[in-house]
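#struct-help
A.M.: can someone run this one for me? Single chain, 168 residues.
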Amino acid sequence: GYHTLMAARVVGPAGQVVAVEADPVTAEILRDEIGINEFTNTEVLQAAASNSDGVVVFARRANNLQSSIAAFAPDGARFEVQAIRLESLLATRRRPQVMKMDIEGAEVLALPGAMGLFQGQQRPILLLSVHGDRAAAFCREFLRDRGYEFQEQEGFEQMWVARPGSTP
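D.P.: on it. Structure tokens below:
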């Protein structure tokens, strides 16, 4: 939620922020924070970014509000969440200039579900917090194949800024 609130402040009233938050509890907290801060430029979509539209099983860890697609989490309370391809989500919205992803290893699903965003001249800058070696390897290959260049963030393990380089 913190990054969503900061993005809403940075883009200002003329900008648009779309926060995709799968966990219904976390989504409701974020909506409350947006209301408290009186941001009118921010929308919270309670769904999971994935490679297909449908339903996915999530797991929430008991000791905190951290949750992820159950296939990437060994334990936690299970619940179903609407899954959406980012291309489907963005079909009726402005093309993003910046996307932030911190989705607990599910980047391997979300990035292919946004294939069209990574083509052409207006590709977004990505802020990625990648979880796990498998997801890191996938993200590097996927984005490099689409002409992205990486800058690792010093002091953070597997946190990157990926910028469009040459058109693939």
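A.M.: thanks! The mean pLDDT is 83.
D.P.: also worth noting: The chain is about 25% helix and 30% strand.
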